[in-house]
Amino acid sequence: MANRNRSRHAVRQSRALGVALTPKAERYMQRRPYRPGENGRGRVKDSDYSVRLKEKQRLRAQYGIREAQMRRVWDEARREEGLAGENLVELLEMRLDALVLRAGFARTIAQARQVVSHRHILVDGKIVNLPSFRVKPGQVVQVKPASQTSPEFQVAAQGAHRDVLPKVPDYLDVELEKLKFTLVRRPKRAEVSVEANVQLIVEHYSR
Prior knowledge:
By secondary structure, the chain is α+β, with helices and mostly antiparallel strands. Helices cover 49% and strands 8% of the residues.
């Protein structure tokens, strides 16, 4: 029942934000490409504030993080050289759970976060159970040997999640059959497969 409720919530949230957060939500949105609720089909004129807020929520939902986490990364992004909005996405993309998803070890960001928090993942040979852990270029991430024989990881190693995930990005060197990958370099915003207008997010946080 809990899984079913989470699935329904993900579908509803996806429709409200206009971005598919799970494969099931994507299928549902293809049939009902409008917002949930009685007035979902009608045209609603959003205020400038609500447009910017929604864009921030879209990005946050795609990484499955809380507002406090997003704010911390934003504060770091604007201190770095370069464009703050692009820095924000690049830093979020280096989260361990996000990279576990991109590598194909999980099917959704929620599954990726669970895989990490349940102590299935090694970084440079050591267990890391913090989904927010930031992977550094050159670090090697893999499913620990004791977990690799479990059905969920055997399925992943056979590439079963590739049908719902984007192409493996160039910043990852993935050996899927070994359930192992290396972060080759810092991701670039243009390569990151999230839907977000970063300029609107910058304007939201800068207001």
